[in-house]
Amino acid sequence: MRPMRSLGHSFLVVVLLGALVAGCAGSDEKAGSTAQGTAAEPRLNWRTWLIEDSVGVEVRDPDDAYKVERIELVDPKGSVTAASEITRETVRDDDRGFYGGPGVSVGGSVGSSGRSGVGLGLSFPLGGTAPRRSPPLKLTKARIPLTDPDSYRATAGDWRVRLHLLGRDNAPRVAEIPAPVPPEK
Question: What pTM did the predictor assign?
Answer without folding.
Answer: 0.59
